[in-house]
Amino acid sequence: MEIPMFSLVSSPFIFLASLLSLFLLYALAWMLIAGRRRLPLPPGTTGWPYIGETFQLYSQNPNVFFASKVKRYGSIFKTHVLGCPCVMISNPEAAKFVLVTKSHLFKPTFPASKERMLGRQAIFFHQGAYHMKLRKLVMRAVMPEAIKDIVSDIEAIVVDTLRSWDGMLINTFQEMKTYTFNAALLSIFGKDDVLYREELKRCYYILEKGYNSMPINLPGTLFNKSMKARKELAQILAKILCSRRQRKEESKDLLGSFMGEKEGLTDDQIADNVIGVMFAARDTTASVLTWTVKYLGENPSILQAVTEEQETIMRCKEKSGEDRILTWADTRKMPITSRVIQETLRVASILSFTFREAVEDVEYEGYLIPKGWKVLPLFRNIHHSPDNFPDPEKFDPSRFEVAPKPNTFMPFGNGIHSCPGNELAKLEILVLLHHLTTKYRWSMVGPQNGIQYGPFALPQNGLPIRLSLKT
Ligand code: HEM
């Protein structure tokens, strides 16, 4: 016999059974949530209310703070800095968990003032479809296939730069910043738009002064001046966009990639990302170059090996009657120099750590990382752990003759937010080292031991050196 639907639902037995299952479901969900909440937080201390352990972190070399915590609590510990509860992680597997396997549970996070200066629509601050689109556009302009064609233009910048240092006492970091900014402009705007180059530089230099300032937007403050310079930069970019559109030419540079019609980026989105790439490309590469000059200066036998490798390339080109201009193929024949760059990236670890924020409660290895907490993978600690790199304080490029263990070497980060500009950065460094080692000698001036953080790790006082042409 068929039972009518109505009688099924209305039968008291079914009603009670539904009620019971609802109750059981609710109880199960509650137990799950409560169970999760009962997971312990990682070990560690959180210091004073609100200020936490900010003072302990910033009153000394930050690496001393990290190292003492790791020694006491192990590779995952909690702390509280800059008004935020944090979990710091210094083991390769945990870093992979946060940056790669479960990256959707950890969003990038920056101070609000950085977001306002770079522009809220810049790649760094996003996840999901918009981020993937921007990443594709950046990669298209800076992957090896695209930068192969600009080796000789980068070389021309290097030759001019080094010539301007001849016989001078220079601040290596400041001079390297000029070089890397010119190289960044080349990759963004190609060789066009020279008209606006000096204006772009002037505004960008004002903007960067405010990067680490307090976000107080009152007349006369650094932040206020920076925000004005940012506005001016966006106006210059609008002029460049306008004149490119009138010319109707397609360009393979980064601006051309952002301007692709089917990409549909607005002018504001393009401006935020152009300024963002200037920021990401310049001081990072300049810091690494500065450390490379220091480590080569301190290790004469390694400098000798690099110089010989570069002289061999130069002589081969002369012998074969080839044009003396460096090519992409030449830069692929520099294994010793490349290992020096890798070892510099490891020892200097210019980005000591990065920031993420848990978007929900996350369980890792029996610990709870609560929603909203910051999570900091500590690159420097991973790069300086004797478990990953024996005798870690020694500058020894030969260790890279063997590939490092997975997830132990992350100078360019890891996962969906890892650095898309890494090949461009390495190219800029290789080309500069080619000319520096084959044509110039240099000596360091003043004390050599200090490190300053601002925010990238740098030799004290930017490494003053005296440089001259080899005779
Ligand atoms: C030696 C020089 C450089 C170093 C050490 C470096 C390092 C890094 C690191 C560690 C990240 C990831 C940060 C994170 O996960 O939170 C990153 C991201 C990024 N880098 Fe670099 N970088 C360098 C040069 C460059 C250059 C030349 C460019 C120019 C295209 C560039 C563009 C970017 C961009 C756009 C991002 C954001 C990627 C995203 O969010 O998807 N970087 N960089």
TrEMBL record:
Which positions in this protein are listed as binding heme? 419
Q: Where are the transmembrane segments?
A: 12-33
Q: Which cofactor does it need?
A: heme
> Main localisation, per the record?
membrane
GO cellular component term, pick one: membrane
The answer to whether the entry has keyword Isomerase is no
Its Enzyme Commission number(s) read: 1.14.14.137
Q: What membrane topology does the UniProt entry give? A: Single-pass membrane protein
| Source superkingdom | Eukaryota
Q: What is this protein called?
A: (+)-abscisic acid 8'-hydroxylase
